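[audit] Reproducing an earlier prediction to check determinism. Same input, same settings, fresh worker. If the tokens differ from the archived copy the diff job will pick it up downstream; this log only records the rerun itself.
[audit] input (619 residues):
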Amino acid sequence: MRSSPYRARRGALPGFPRRTVRATLVLAVTAGLATAVPATAAQAATSSSTSTTATSADATSGLAAKPYMGWSSWSMQSSQYPGLNPDGNYSYLTEANILKQTDALASKLKKYGYDHVNIDAGWWMDRNWTSEFDQYGRQTPDPVRFPHGMKSVADHIHSKGLKAGIYLPVGLEKGAYGGGKVSIWNAPGCTTADIVYPDLRTTNGWDSAYKLNFDNPCAQKYIDSQAQTFADWGYDFLKLDGVGPGSFKSGDNYNNVADVAAWQKAIAATGRPIHLELSWSLDIGHAADWKKYSNGWRIETDVECYCDTLVTWENSVNDRWNDAPAWSHKAGPGGWNDLDSLDVGNGAMDGLTKAERQSYMTLWAINKSPLYTGDDLTQLDSYGLSLLTNEEVIAVDQNTSPVARPVTPMGDEQVWGTKNSDGSYTVALFNLGDSPASVTADWASFGFTGAAAVRDLWNHRNLGTYKNEITAALPAHGSRLFTVKPDGAPLATTGYEAESANNTLTGNASVATCDACSGGKKAGNLYLDSKLQFNDVKVKKDGIYTVKVAYVSGDPRSVTVYSNDGNGTTLKFPSTGDWSTVDTVSVQLALKAGSNTITFDSGWDYSPDIDRIDVPKSA
């Protein structure tokens, strides 16, 4: 059977809306390399965050115990870079090219942990993007693209000691319906008419498929038949695409939780371990479902630009700094937040500067995203190869510490971090602005003070011991990545609860119950010119204090913060993921000896709910 053309371009299509400081050291960055020089700069707002690791159903099975690593075909087959797709859109996807990339992965990257070769959309479509199905409505490989079939390809991938991945859209593709008369494999009496709704309602991110009706057992049988096919071919990984809620679709038609559950059940029935990855831009409101039934979930639209490079910084790479924090508590052994392809290895083809390429991989690593590149592995430049094979950075992605979060409010200069099991911290500094800037990580943001030993992970250098902070002079879109080992004392602070009767609430601001909050309460309804003022905040001497703010916010929200009668600074706090999770950021405020006020002012915006503040006992 053959269907009408299927549009595979998804997510970030062209035109789709997208979405300073003092220190004892400045790291001057040139062409992605760092050298240490003495300097002084102004101090930036920083903070630490507590993250918990969530565990999914497969955590004890060994499947997705760590984020997977490898290569995916989509970035190259979707690009208009000269020469990649000479025979029309997506024509790069062929057996010959998959085998070429397999061999390159095995020889260049396998020893660093990259072991997946994932074949993306189009393997069952001809050059006109017309789908092909077998007599049971299952996708079958296009004989021009894959003349030896999919099992042969998997066998070659396995012969190199690698794992084979394959792709499907969610639902029953329209071309497989066959007027409802197509029989389902190994399900006597079941036809395609039985597995969908009578009104042929559509589903998935492109409405290219009919929604499966799992009230009829025949629907599960159909998924079983697809899963068994992949198991028989020897595949180890399945990307299920267009899944909702998410993928910019909502409503009952696009709720594919039942599909994902059916796939998990079908995979288990095959007896073959198959990693199930969901795509794209999944609804965080169903994170518990994605964790329960799968091993990974895309949190964003496609990273590819669908232009004459693989990606661009502005297309969607830089969106991840805004969107990743909300998902930070959702990942853990058995299931991981997927930031999409990591295209940092090819230089001009990637469409990024060296600084952007390093920042791209830094963010992926600290978020413990799967590291799968979409680059041409036969054409890696020396800088790209050095990024992809940096074992210290890879270790950040693969270790068991919690996913990093921003410890400063959102803005051009950001500090992210997480505490490791050995008591050290992974600390990343980012300059997302379009011109050079200095960014500082304050030890107070991480709950300690005094000396700490710092190692530069990108440059494999011990930088020595630094007191209270470290500053990096970063190029536009640049980054640094450190391991920081405290040798000082825990930071002594005084806590102030938002719900205290000593505070002043104005406008709509009010106290509400919050099970996750300190004291079980928070101050909320900070909107339309409402304020929360902490009164009688006492310190012993004048100075700049790094104040940790515990807050709750289901989406990124801004609030103006100031001390006493000072001028307020409007800061955007990253999402905590939902309205029942507490996280922290740190802000720097000038306090005077004696009694002070600290105010959170919504202005005419909607602001986060505030749980408490912790003020250091010394500046």
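[audit] rerun output stored. Observation attached for the diff report: Residues 1-55 have pLDDT under 50 and may be disordered.
[audit] end
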